[in-house]
Write a structure and sequence with these properties.
alpha/beta, two-stranded parallel ribbon
Length: 317
Amino acid sequence: MSIALGAAARDGKNAGVAPVTYGEGERPPRGDYSRARDDYCCEQDWAAYTEAEHDLYRRLHARQSALLPGHACDAFVRALGRLGAPERIPRFDAVSDTLERSTGWRLVAVPGLIPEEAFFRLLAARRFPVTDWIRRPDEFDYIVEPDLFHDLFGHVPLLFDPVFADFMQAYGEGGLKAARLGACELLARLYWYTVEFGLIATPSGLRAYGAGLLSSGAELSYCVRSPQPRRVEFEPARMMRSRYRIDSFQPTYFVIRSFEQLFDACAPDFAPVYAAVRETMAREGEIEAGAGAPGDRAAGPFSPATSAAVRPTAPGA
């Protein structure tokens, strides 16, 4: 996730400083924003990566790849190899050339989290922003904000899927409308519970398609195997009312049946949905992370026999 949820920038343009985000934190997003253009994009200085950083990418890739069977959706597993050899950090242009031939998307380097409107503009143009720096070795298991590995490994493979690729463009177009309606926080919650932490029901059981899960060393198994979290059938208005946790495993996951369902549900004009959600929140309040709500339909199944050793800790972006 390269979007800085809740960020504001003058005319949506880079002012050379890190954007502001929802919530509180002890430090601003890292990254050198002074070298980025007005649209927050910059060049990937591939020659600047050290051998230690290439090795860190290789080890992260190997760790996550070993966890994918039985946990990741088939579309992700099929496309992962198209990122290129895992021994070194990929060149974004090389991945883009392959991706563009498949679904018309290209990758663009960014210095870190970028404001909502800049993010939406890129998605609407079928450009996916990828952070160009990689985490430190001491952040191998957990990093507070998205880095190159999360953005590239977690997000990009599903852009090879035509339906998911179209959904992401539609999300960007919808985001630009949401910005005009002051509804970005509601749409951000939908993104969190789908693109970042979504599950999909398959004939083989629940599988992860959210990038925050696919790039996590521990939550990928937890989200599918543990009996502890609440798993609810996909419902956009419910998701927009739902708060979420950024400092632990998700206590609630939403489950789609197909990428077509995701695309179709998000295709209509959301203006009346935003109005209805706001009216409901004014009357009944928000839904706290992990809490149930009237009308929830439980989604499953999961395998409790393999869940005993899975315990919630911190998310691994």
